[in-house]
Amino acid sequence: MNLSVETTPSKPPMVINSVAYAADGRRLPDITLDQISDVLQQPDTFVWVGLHEPDEPLLEKLQEEFGLHDLAIEDAHHAHQRPKIEVYGDSLFIVLHTAQFVGGKIEFGETHIFLGPRYLLTVRHGASLSYSPARARCEKEPELLAIGPSYGLYAVMDFIVDNFFPIVRSFQDELAEVESDIFESTYKRETIERLYELKKELVTLRLAVAPLQDMLNQLMRFHPTIIRDDVRLYFRDVFDHAVRVKEACDTMSEMLTAAMSVSLAMVTVGQGEVVKRLAGWAGLLGVPTLMASWYGMNFKHMPELAGEASYYAFTAATIAVIAVVYVILKRAKWL
């Protein structure tokens, strides 16, 4: 099967790395996809292949080389899978959700991992960082890479979980900024909108992190033919990091809920203050209105209508009553 991995400059390559490793963890020369099955026939070697949004022919080629299950290949091609671990004979198919900053916003993606006794295949979809730093870290410690593909799986999962921490810190920083806007004297619709967007992004992040605990527990306890005992301790470290991220997400979720409640309460309090002030001014205007309407009745024998100083006395009385009402409302903080 002739499969070309050439791409145009506008499209990133689908095959990022295709490398074989010796039994002692040393990196061997890069191999082509057609050489994978030949390398796997050699004793004490394993292959690590990294893909980015591969097309169907490429996945079919790798299925042929590694002997992957049809259902796992179908999931890897279509993406949009939930985080999970599936067992297919002597191999594992693992789905992880990833996150990264793209243009100042948080974007989410997926990584599909095929793990066997002699191979590790990672397939990235959507927003996710390259796992080249994880691979380089492993190659600096060949005595650990000699453990096999399961150590490479640890490095990839540790890289994914550690990448959640700067995103969590960005949530915390932005939440602190939004909280300062909540207590400003003027209401901003943008504040509520941003709180809602933060809540939505945090829920998505939590959905990506929460399943990791069960998955790492499974990797620490089961699959002895695929996961070496030497690497289970490393998965425990990733488990601790995943717990920290989830706890931070839970705490921020509660804080965001409280912030939204406080913001709405502040709006209600502000509206109440406006209503109080309107009611106070309406009360002041009601004094001269009442007095003027009373003495504006054209009855012939109303007292004081014939007096020369009646107009001035009425005006003075009106002003006095307004002043008294003003003082009362001012002390009651209605004005």
Structure write-up:
The structure is a single chain. The chain starts with 14 loop residues before the first strand and ends with a helix. The chain is rod-shaped and about 125 Å long. It is 57% helix and 16% strand. It is built from ten helices and seven strands. Among the domains are: 1-145, 2-Layer Sandwich (Beta Polymerase, domain 2), CATH 3.30.460; 269-331, no CATH class. α6 packs parallel to α9, α7 runs antiparallel to α8 and α7 packs parallel to α9. The protein has helices at residues 36-40, 56-66, 70-78, 132-139, 142-145, 149-162, 164-182, 189-221, 229-295, 310-331, and strands spanning 15-21, 27-30, 46-52, 84-88, 91-102, 105-116, 119-126. Strands 2-1-3-7-6-5-4 form a seven-stranded mixed sheet. It is an alpha+beta fold and 335 residues long.
List the helices and strands and how they pair.
Blueprint: E1 15-21, E2 27-30, H1 36-40, E3 46-52, H2 56-66, H3 70-78, E4 84-88, E5 91-102, E6 105-116, E7 119-126, H4 132-139, H5 142-145, H6 149-162, H7 164-182, H8 189-221, H9 229-295, H10 310-331
Parallel strand pairs: 3-7
Antiparallel strand pairs: 1-2, 1-3, 4-5, 5-6, 6-7
Helix pairs in contact: 2-3, 4-6, 6-9, 7-8, 7-9, 8-9, 9-10
What attributes does this structure have?
7 strands; 57% helix; single chain; 16% strand; seven-stranded mixed beta sheet; alpha+beta; 335 residues; Beta Polymerase, domain 2
Order of helices and strands: EEHEHHEEEEHHHHHHH
Strand order of the largest sheet: 2-1-3-7-6-5-4
What's the CATH H-level superfamily name of the domain at 1-145? CorA soluble domain-like
Mean pLDDT: 79
Q: Tell me, what is the CATH class of the domain at 1-145?
A: Alpha Beta
